[in-house]
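Section 5: illustrative case.
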């Protein structure tokens, strides 16, 4: 055995090796760096909406908006049931404990026990959406509107999302300038609060892991693009100039940074983080199923069948993206 031991010593085989398993919990620099970058990209939706708004509102524009509305529904709802709710209930502690390191060392997807139950929940919701949407198309929408008003704001008629942002008010030329200003104030304040909550959710997600932050940021981005476009349309129709509407829309979007840094500072405690995830999950489900889904079902247009297809492409794409991230999140490195 002596020659063998001597050879191992010379070759360096007996040198103690350090543990190469790194913690999946992000560092302080990663939390603030990635969180700020993701929030900045989300805030740029306000500018992007202003760029898209002046373009001619044709079939391509409607198809683009239909895909993003469907994508918003798919990502928000799936992120809530696959990521946020399990984390709030303590079913999945990403990056914490020995299980996280064991998952990181395994090859292939990591499927948690609750994953397929969450998939069935999403499939059941999607199935009933399909039934109602198909029945609405077959009946040509006669007497079935869920109380949503159809409003035309720069070609955004029938989206339902803009109608929600304007509080169901139909703009008429006879309304006074002061009423326009009141509506604009309500939209700006409401959007600021909404963006603050989004930033809080992103901050808590990046405090847990980079992957969790990415999934939440994707969900927020997908619903913020049509949201900001709708807000900009309401500000324009309320009497604001293009420049003022753009500035106020962007300023209200910047409150997401306030929410981000508050979320990053208070969510270092795992218990606080779970409460934030619980509130965020409820917000995401409400936006997806109450604000957005009815507008997908009750779209009034001559191209209803095409938009139905584009909606479903967006929904299924958002669902698949969130499912793949849930399965391979331990393998994602940035």
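Designed sequence:
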């Amino acid at each position: 055995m002596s020659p063998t031991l001597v050879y191992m010593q010379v070759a360096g085989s007996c040198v103690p090796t350090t543990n190469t398993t790194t913690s999946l919990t992000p560092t302080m620099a990663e939390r603030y760096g990635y969180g700020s970058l993701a929030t900045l990209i989300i805030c740029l939706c306000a500018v992007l909406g202003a760029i898209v708004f002046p373009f001619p509102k044709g079939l391509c524009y409607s198809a683009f908006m239909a895909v993003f509305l469907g994508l918003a529904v798919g990502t928000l709802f799936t992120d809530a049931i696959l990521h946020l709710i399990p984390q709030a209930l303590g079913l999945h502690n990403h990056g914490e404990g020995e299980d996280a390191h064991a998952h990181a060392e395994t090859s292939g997807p990591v499927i948690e026990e609750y994953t397929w139950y969450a998939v069935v929940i999403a499939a059941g919701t999607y199935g009933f959406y399909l039934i109602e949407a198909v029945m609405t198309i077959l009946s040509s929408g006669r007497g079935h509107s869920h109380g949503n008003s159809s409003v035309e704001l720069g070609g955004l008629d029938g989206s339902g999302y803009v109608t929600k942002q304007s509080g169901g008010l139909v703009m008429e030329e006879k309304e006074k300038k002061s009423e326009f200003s009141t509506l604009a104030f309500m939209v700006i304040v409401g959007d600021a609060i909404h963006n603050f909550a989004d930033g809080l959710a992103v901050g808590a997600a990046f405090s847990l892991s980079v992957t969790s932050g990415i999934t939440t940021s994707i969900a927020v981005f997908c619903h913020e693009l049509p949201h900001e476009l709708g807000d900009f349309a309401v500000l324009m129709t309320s009497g604001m100039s293009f420049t003022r509407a753009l500035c106020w829309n962007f300023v209200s979007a910047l409150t997401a940074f306030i929410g981000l840094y508050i979320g990053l500072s208070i969510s270092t405690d795992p218990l606080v983080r779970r409460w934030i995830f619980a509130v965020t999950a409820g917000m995401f489900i409400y936006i997806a199923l109450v604000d957005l889904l009815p507008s997908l079902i009750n779209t009034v247009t001559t191209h209803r069948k095409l938009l139905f297809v584009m909606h479903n492409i967006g929904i299924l794409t958002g669902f698949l993206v969130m499912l793949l991230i849930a399965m391979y999140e331990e393998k994602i490195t940035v």
